[in-house]
TrEMBL record, chain A:
Its main location: membrane. It comes from Paracoccus onchidii. CDD domains: TM_PBP1_LivM_like. Signal peptide: none annotated. Keywords: Cell membrane, Membrane, Transmembrane, Transmembrane helix. This is Branched-chain amino acid ABC transporter permease. It comes from the Bacteria. It is found in: Cell membrane. Pfam families: BPD_transp_2. The chain crosses the membrane at residues 12-28, 40-61, 68-89, 101-119, 131-149, 169-191, 203-219, 268-293, 323-341, 361-387.
UniProtKB/TrEMBL annotation, chain B:
It is found in: Cell membrane. It is a multi-pass membrane protein. It comes from Paracoccus onchidii. Its main location: membrane. Belongs to the binding-protein-dependent transport system permease family. LivHM subfamily. Pfam families: BPD_transp_2. The chain crosses the membrane at residues 6-39, 51-71, 77-99, 111-132, 168-186, 215-236, 242-261, 268-286, 306-324. This is Branched-chain amino acid ABC transporter permease. PANTHER family: BRANCHED-CHAIN AMINO ACID TRANSPORT SYSTEM PERMEASE PROTEIN LIVH, HIGH-AFFINITY BRANCHED-CHAIN AMINO ACID TRANSPORT SYSTEM PERMEASE PROTEIN LIVH. It comes from the Bacteria. Keywords: Amino-acid transport, Cell inner membrane, Cell membrane, Membrane, Transmembrane, Transmembrane helix, Transport.
Amino acid sequence: MSTNRQAAASNPWRAPILFAFLAILFVLEGTVRNSMFSGSWNTALAILNMGLISAITALGVNMQWGYAGLFNVGVVGFLALGGVAPVLVSLQPVEGAWQAGGPRVLFALAVGVGTLALATQVWKRLHRGRTLAMLAVLLVGFVLYRGLFDPAVTAIEANNPARHGNLGGLGLPVLMSWLVGGAFAAAAAWAVGKVALGLRSDYLAIATLGIGEIIVAVLKNEDWLARGVKNVTSIPRPVPYEIDLQQNPEFVEFATRWGFSAAEASGIWVKLCYMLLFLVVLLSIILLAELALKSPWGRMMRAIRDNETAAEAMGKDVTARHLQVFVLGSAVIGIAGAMMITQDGLMAPVSYNPLRYTFLIWVMVIVGGSGNNWGAVLGAVLIWFLWIKAEVWGPELIGLLTSPLPEGGLKEHLLDSSAHMRFIAMGLVLLLVLRFAPRGLVPEN
Amino acid sequence: MDILNALVAFLNFVFIPAAAYGAQLALGALGVTLIYGILRFSNFAHGDTMAFGTAVTILATWGLQAMGVSLGPLPTALLALPFGIAATAAMVLLTDQAVYRFYRVKKSAPIILVMASVGVMFLMNGITRLLIGVDEQRFADGTRFVIDVRTFKAMTGLQEGLALKTTQVLTVVVALLVVWALFWFLNRTKSGKAMRAYSDNEDLALLSGIDPEKVVRMTWIIAASLATIAGVLYGLDKAFKPFNYFQILLPIFAAAIVGGLGNPLGAIAGGFVVAFSEVAITYPWLKVARYLFPGWQPEGLLQLLGTEYKFAVSFVILIAVLLFKPTGLFRGKSV
């Protein structure tokens, strides 16, 4: 991409016009009811909120790719890891779970991490026979870890398995968990980056692909952590509940004054509250990112991205800076993951699909304009809108296209599989933008 | 007797499945490594290329079955394989012309090609879903077992049974044949030598009058054939499900990197290293241990890691190789 980054004069009105177009799309979705739009503000705001979360994820990816040229293929993993935070932070403590095995699990995890640290030290300090010594440390550590970990997990999972069987949370405010989610993702990113950065650029991509799959597998199978595939429900909300609003006479009166039914208005109100929260997070991250990008640090990052050899010759530690920006970007993705779980109120590990949460985010970043924060936001909300609407528009389009075909097996097959067209469309969009407009809708300036 | 029983249990649950799986991974990793050697990028679309080739082969198998063609004891899919290979080769040549060629001519950074391959992955994934849907398909027919558990027990009088599936034997035999043919091609024919020369030193190869486009085309055709064969063998042995072919990408990459990216011999070794580690680490050794140490009553199943974490094994191997020997066991192209 380095060859495409020459700063061509771009139209200053380009970004505002595109954002205005996006706004029109959402207003149409909220007001017009026909075969293309739902005409419901609830739907429009739901799409917008998820679009804002995608935008924050895209900002994280954009930091890694746009500032440093790092290809992270494990976005889904960091997003999922961030999602664990609301469960562990804000859920009410589970009765008896902590007594059953809480300290033991923590101790076992500490032993596991300690083993890895000790093995690293053995490898660094010893010279003769260090391979054997390191393997011995790892073996003993693993046996010790499993010996401590397994009974503790069995004890926790045996504690009221129908309702809980997990460790439970700390009962703290859910908003706090957003930062914790970022910290979780950052820690995982540090571990992966430490290993895979500084080697060929492909290796980071492959390593992140792996860590993404493993994190999702852990969430699916470790019931003590977040109940695995049994899902955690009723994660507390930072905003009011619809049912409380509907029972509040003042709110009902307020709703009728605006011409909405109480049920509809309460949904809209809750979504607006979420939207405000998300916007605050989004704008602060953009502000920080823009400040960083304009600082000497940002100029150094771009210099490294555009010519690693030259930057290294100037005495910049390329690998360390890459690690730094990789951790920062992943932290932002983790925050988005925690926000997503907070909004859904539900932790369902099965829903973490790499095509949807890794590659779709990449399409958003590339389409929006890699290296440009506003571009990433625009791309994210636009692509998310299209991704949702493709569910409605896809079958209609195919119906239209296949209308000249005779009734029969082929036509039916095409109509049935219109859902898969979304993947083809996304692949095409990614390839076309990458080739014909590599700087995206809103280019870097 | 107990030692024999332990050995049979080991063969039945560890050695035979791992050998078959290793052969499938090796074929997949060969494709990845060849593309890396010649085109110099990691092809993320390889898993979905395997899925596409398998889907076409399954459709052709159904067609042949409908026409009443069968191979007797062998799966009909073997007859359908050439159709799958042809379609996949056409497909990847088309994507090369439409997508990769542009970046190759422009000499873009490898990571851009990786990203383009992600786009191709999306496309292939969608096309595969369109062709055959997302459900699991079982298309193995013919005789199921070469030796089944009951016959084996009757034959030997051992307590442990041994089952050898036709697909497992077939996988290993086909993989051996394919690898032999590939190495013969690379080492003995003029085109194969041109490919190796291009992989070793692009500029020198160009100066010697080797047509780069021809080398690239050949690479894609070989990679598509390897991918289709690997995919069909994997599908025959387990079952065909498009999403599994995306997930198998990680072990395949791990195998290629363990062996050294760009090194065909390494890819084969890597495939078996990954497969044997994966099966050995996720197998509950309790049964084998009971035969070997009759007095020992261990708690638990003696399973190092649950099968749901089998991908973690490839990942750990990958990390270990990146940490200690980033060029792979067999010195691959570059760090």
